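3.2 Worked example (two chains)
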Amino acid sequence: MQEMQTAAARRAAEAAAAGYVLDRLEAVPRLVGRHEDFLIVTGLAGTARDIARLTGDGAHAYLLGGAMGAACMMGLGLALARPDRRVLVLTGDGELLMSLGALATIAVMNPPNLAIVCVDNGHYGETGWQRSHTGLGVDLERIAAGAGIRATRTIADASGLEEGSRFIREGNGTCFVLLRVAPTEPPAYKRNLDASACRDRFRAALLGAR
């Protein structure tokens, strides 16, 4: 236990020095704001638990599990299918690193109702808290901009959260936000892992939100 605490303290100190200081338990809810404004697709693990807690495991949120790398393209399909609704993809740095090509396709399609938020803690929290590519210097906002997404932001302190919340609700094209947070555990929220039930309730919410 002491070794784990020491490792966590060392990880936190290194991350703070690199600018990963926001508390995700506060930053994600402040950035998302009124979650009912969106149909939501999340990555697995941390971001799924962020949104499960924020929405109370709401029917308008589809929380991935075991499908790493799929969130952005699912969000794109949803945004194209429902141009009358704003779609939010909330994913992590590890999940997005598995599907960077999705950013190029999204940039070309450029649906105006799609917002992508990458919660970047610079670590692979699911597999032992190894430093991720972003923790070693890869900048996912620059990659998104290089792929052709014209509206991008990096938010690394609390002063940017209010403007970021407006940013993901406005604009004439897809937007991308890199939210840098400290490498701490996501909410301890017990989400529904019945894939069929989650699919059916999201489909009902999707078809009913007209």
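3.2.1 Second chain
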Amino acid sequence: MVDAFLGELGKKLADHWFTLLVLPGALYLAVAAAADALGQAHALDPARLARRVTAWSKAPDATAVGGQIIVLAAVLAGAGMAGLSAQAAGRAFERIALAADWTDWPRPLRVVADRFVARRRERWNAANADYQRLREQARRARARGERLEPMERDRAYRALIRVSEGRPERPTWSGDRIHAVGRRLHDDLGLDTVRIWPALWLILPDAVRSEITAARTDLAAAATLTGWAVLYVPIAVWWWPAALIAVVLATAGRRRIRITTNTYALLIESAARLHTSALADQLRLPADGPATVGTGQAITSQLSAHASDPLSGT
């Protein structure tokens, strides 16, 4: 039984390693090889690439069994190293995107982040003023028994949330999206996510925990996609199409980070709202009916030990 379990675990880890590291890494090595073969002067010359590949395949070392094994091992090792480098870069981008600890960043980065926050607040204030003006117009129209078309008001609301759901407190949209969850849970239910999350996580149903874990994994994968974009930038020095690949990957990664961050935030907030009463019951706290601010404050007070924040991105 143990051997079967370890064998299945090893298989899953191997599949994970191959899918997330080796395959993208092998593609990266193939692009690097094409860049070496073509260069800037012949960047889009498939015939030249075909000739170079044919020459490589006919080399003595490539035709011998020992040489093929060495080449395969080198490709696997290189692909794995490239994948690990992309993941490391992705983790850095994830930290920047969520910006949970931006006030503790080194001074140069903190100054830049502070300027981003100020700029985003200016944009949010302007968009919010426009939206509130349209809401007031609609309210006055309803008081007169009239109804204004909501199209312009909806457009103003979409422009507002494209900046942030609330007044920006972090230098990025994704960071504010996560921050908004903790702020709403505190305002609506009196919950401190840092303190209550470990206990809440323990009582969540397996299906809920699986969904949250999957969303968190998707967020890390989206950040890794941006990490791959960074790795393609140096290749552009020798082969300009690599710059286009980098731009496409960076654009896709940025969009995926936003989408996965939004999903992760929705799941975290939903789990907290749906299971706060159950947590109060486990802690033997009074919670008749829906959870209230008093319930949340009592939970937070009882779970006052320092704990990791699920919304920090760590």
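3.3 Remarks
Residues 106-169 form one domain.
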